[in-house]
Amino acid sequence: MKRYIISMMACIALLFASCQQEQIVFDHEQQQFATLENAILLELIAPIGTAVDEEIYIIGAFNGMDEKSVIGNVAWQLEKAELSDKKWGIYLFPGDFVDGKTLADGFSFVSKKSGLEYTIKGEPATHSLTANVGQMYNIWADRWASYFASDEEQVQHDGPVVYVLDESGFGQLNLYMWGDVNDLNGGWPGMAVTGTEKVNGMELKYFDIGADNEGLSETLIFSDNGSNQLADYGPVVLTSSEPLYLHITAEGTIEELNMENTIEHDGAAVYILDGMEWGMNTTLYMWGDVNDLNGGWPGMVVTGTEKIGDYTYMYFDLGAANTGLNENLIFSNNGSNQLADYAYTIGENIYLYLTSGGAQLIEDPANPGDVVWFDPLAQPVEPKEEAVIDLYIYNATVTLTPLNLYAWGSKEVFGGWPGAVVADMEQVAMLNLPLLHTQISGFVGDEFNLIFNNNAGSQLADYNVKAAETTNAYYIKVTDTEVTPLSLVAQLPAK
Prior knowledge:
The chain has three helices and 35 strands. By secondary structure, the protein is mainly beta. The chain folds into four domains: 25-147, Immunoglobulin-like; 161-256, Immunoglobulin-like; 269-378, Immunoglobulin-like, CATH 2.60.40; 386-491, Immunoglobulin-like (Sandwich). It is flat and about 95 Å long.
């Protein structure tokens, strides 16, 4: 519903008669291929993370294909849409179907790189569709098999481990050790990197030291395959119960990474680097499969902050129950200065950089590239002073009935659209003028946009009120065409 309200402003500006929620077609649902009279058009909305050069195929009883046989068969390969990185399409001709089978007998998709299509529960997915030629059908895919494989294939270590967040710029990182045992795991320049592992959102290199070396005290020397060596680090005691996490930089520094107090999230989390300098005022509104997910406009507030490498991210916990939903994310400065929508299927954690150009995906959270961000922890958060707005309404409408009041901004004061019925508000008399009275609670500086409407397609232009430090009484007159300030002086009797 909020998406409907936001877009309503544009509709009014363009003098549209109405802008109904039912008419919304989300960007990822827009048809991308032309329909053919003799073919069924399927348009696949691919899982998040699907590469633009991916090869995707369709399999099912109707073509008698399986995962192995379909790969490479161009007859059943989907084509990526030119104008969308989320959609792939394929034309199916019933004359090509085998054994009298149809799409109603079940079908699914397979990615050459990422495997079979899976549900969000990690089970093989199957679709069933009664389809007609000359028609287009959207098909949603939740996950590829690789998504679950990555969770299952946890790295198994043999004894103590040294993890490294490597920002040294070295072409080949080596680790030499001396101490209780000199030349441990190899003479100079020492052992090569064993592998890489993602830990707390950071892509770390690691060295498996070996179970036989448990408890040894060693001094570590990192180098670029023997050249450009860093200063000795240690001695350290190598134990499997306490892996060593280090951060090395191009300046030659070696610092221990703080991996304590790992934050547990409720389901997926949206992490952001704030390039807008909104700080803790940043809010996240979501609409899509579920509108007003986790709160009406301007949405949910920041859940907390988390340090990843040298960067302090703010994050929003979305809730495990919302996994699999297709949502559009709108970031704003507590309801103002909103950024363009960002489409996201709730599943894996996502890392975004907020700029005036919108939200940009960060591939490596510990190394986001050339970004300038606002550190929310570096700025003291001043406590906000509470304020109450007294709103007095003179209802002079004739046709705009029943008159409803919706408020958006810092929060949806009177609930979701269309808001509260004005006639139900407190009645007061002032200078013999019948008025309706209500209050809006907030903080100094909060802004609210009032929309008077009849919940039947007619609404007046937004009327803005702001919580100030002193006077917070607004007197307004509402007619069938406009909202204007009401002067009580004009109502005084002549002397």
